[in-house]
Amino acid sequence: MGIPEGDAKAGAKLFKTRCAQCHTTESGGANKIGPNLHGIFGRTSGTVPGFSYTDANKDKGVKWEEQTLFDYLENPKKYIPGTKMAFAGFKKPKDRADVIAHLKEACQ
């Protein structure tokens, strides 16, 4: 199964209500409970300067792309056992695709 086409506007709404309390997306944005996500595409997990990651995140060595984010956002704790990310995930594929579409616009 491929990734459904995402709607960045819908993804922005989901990000605001489900992600923004822990993450920022702007260039130079602060790390919060979670790391700043600007430049996430092509970045390796556990590598944002100044953010204290678990060994699980650092050791996973995931290269964040659309597919890895799509898989991760379904159930972060299953994808990276030992992560401190408390978010349960987006169960609906469309929601994950929408958030990824938003991130592609907001984090480049």
Structure description:
With 108 residues, this protein is mainly alpha-helical. It has a single domain, classed as Cytochrome Bc1 Complex, Chain D, domain 2. 41% of the residues lie in helices and 0% in strands. It is built from five helices and no strands. It has helices at 8-18, 55-60, 66-74, 76-79, 93-106. Helix 1 (8-18) packs across helix 5 (93-106) and helix 3 packs across helix 5 (93-106). The protein is globular, with a radius of gyration of 13 Å. The N and C termini lie far apart (26 Å). Pfam families: Cytochrom_C. This is Cytochrome c. Keywords: Electron transport, Heme, Iron, Metal-binding, Mitochondrion, Respiratory chain, Transport. Belongs to the cytochrome c family.
Overall pLDDT confidence: 95
Classify the secondary structure makeup into a structural class.
Answer: mainly alpha
CATH superfamily: Cytochrome c-like domain
Q: Hey, roughly how much beta strand do the residues contain?
A: under 5%
- Highest CATH level, the class: Mainly Alpha
How can the largest sheet be summarized? none
CATH topology: Cytochrome Bc1 Complex, Chain D, domain 2
Through-space gap between termini = 26 Å
CATH architecture: Orthogonal Bundle
- Series of H and E elements: HHHHH
How many extended strands? 0
* Rg (CA only): 13 Å
Write down the overall geometry: globular
**What's the helix count?**
5
When the domains are counted, the total is 1
Measured as a percent range, the helix fraction is: 40-55%
Low-pLDDT runs: none
